[in-house]
Amino acid sequence: MKILVTGGCGYIGSHTIVDLIDNGFDVVCVDDNSRSTPALLKGIKKITGVAVPHYAYDLCDLAKVEELFKAHPDIEGVIHFAAYKSVPESVKAPLKYYHNNLSSLINLLRVSKEYALKYFIFSSSCSVYGNAEALPVTEHTPLQEAESPYAYTKQSGERILLDLAKSDPAFNVVLLRYFNPVGAHSSAEIGEVQEKPENLVPYITQTAIGKRDQLTVFGKDYETRDGTCIRDYIHVMDIANAHTKALEYVIANKNEENAEVFNLGSGNGVTVLELIQAFEKVSEQKLNYVMGDRRPGDVVAIYANNEKATSKLGWEIKYSIEEMMRTAWEWECKMHQKSSN
Ligand code: UD1
Q1: Average pLDDT of the segment spanning 122-135
Q2: Residue 264 Cα, ligand 1 centroid: separation in angstroms?
Q3: What's the whole-number mean pLDDT along residues 281-296?
């Protein structure tokens, strides 16, 4: 079955392509490469032996989306990753986020409808929960006000898809709410590439390798066990595999409703300082970090109840925190080696 992966040169997209190919799917990739590199497709080829067809199109351009489906009218499912993802950047430039994340989704959906597409998997985020009333969050935990424009684009994207699913019983939607994906493929052929990803783990590894002078821990006086924010870190290959499982689930007609939501987290809440310690342990080096101010847009603590994904999708979490940090570090070291050769 042919699946269109948008944002396939990105961090989670590239790892998901590997998992889809490993499970027998045929993949077409679209990615404008504004925040990614087509070089990751070479890594995918090394791992899987497959040269994935790639279109460097901007999904905000409706004509390009039409062109894509015209070239591949046999696309049966879409996994939509392509979006901007930085919480702090979205606070500074909200319109950029609303325009990019929502116009691309709407264009994709307009054309998907024209082609009577049946399966649509959406990259959502735990940020839709805001500062949740109770932890861990289940899929029924009420969504609070979005803490950032980024989070609001995810709440809106979910709502658009739920409305569409209501209007069309043949259209199957799965909303996957990622917690904090980290790590890299164990081959170190693919991983997070952005120079300014604005996320904790790449900033830890970039500091350790010497690309950054020091890491700032955002906030030391939160009401948590050590004063730093709590998040649910999950290995990117575990996240990737959940997409394959979600596709298989809807294709096998196992979904009870034509729109379903799943939390993709490990179920463990880890503080920023605990994650730094895990990194120091696996890399056997001290990280240069300072305690700084809180970052606007951050929620205090969030972690998942993942029972729905494990029981209904048969999703199994395979990687530990140590493996997350070890693979992230191996990827950073490999990129460093390549750039110094
Ligand atoms: C947020 C979203 C998440 C989304 C991700 C995409 C929430 C709760 N989560 O993740 O769903 O997938 O954006 O980018 O909104 N930190 C530092 N120093 C740094 C960088 C980060 O201390 O230099 C801290 C942050 O304050 C936070 C933790 O590390 O407590 C994780 O931050 P980050 O990796 O940016 O991800 P989130 O903002 O949690």
Answers
A1: 94
A2: 16
A3: 97
* Residue type (1 letter), 300: V
Q: Rounded mean pLDDT of 156-174?
A: 98
- For residue 70, the SS3 value is helix
The band of 199, judged by pLDDT with boundaries at 50, 70 and 90, is: very high
pLDDT higher than threshold 90 for residue 196: no
What CATH number does the domain containing 39 carry?
3.40.50.720
pLDDT value at 339 more than 90 = no
C-beta of 216 in contact with ligand 1 (< 6 A): yes
310 Cβ inside 6 Å of ligand 1? no
In this structure, the residue with its CA closest to atom 9 of ligand 1 is: 127
Q: Are residues 83 and 154 in the same domain?
A: yes
Task: Answer yes or no: is 194 within a domain.
Answer: no
Token pair of 67 as six digits: 């062109």
Task: Indicate whether 195 pLDDT > 80.
Answer: no
Mean pLDDT score, 111-130: 97
Same domain, 42 and 125: yes
Q: Are residues 116 and 205 in the same domain?
A: no
Positive or negative, the Cα torsion across 243, 249, 252, 258?
Answer: negative
| Region of 13 on the Ramachandran plot (φ > 0 left; ψ -120 to 50 alpha; else beta) | alpha
Please work out whether the CB of residue 272 comes within 6 Å of at least one atom of ligand 1.
Answer: yes
Structural domain includes residue 218: yes
* pLDDT score of 194 more than 80: no
Domain co-membership, 205 together with 64: no
State yes or no: pLDDT of 197 exceeds 90. Answer: no
How many folded domains does the chain comprise?
2
Helix (H, G, I), strand (E, B) or coil at 9: coil
Contacts of residue 313, defined as CB under 8 A and 6 or more positions apart, other chains included, come to 242, 245, 246, 249, 262
Residues 65, 126 within the same domain: yes
Neighbour-count burial of 290, counting CB atoms closer than 10 A to its CB (0-12 exposed, 13-18 middle, 19+ buried): exposed
Domain that holds residue 216: 200-230+267-307+319-340
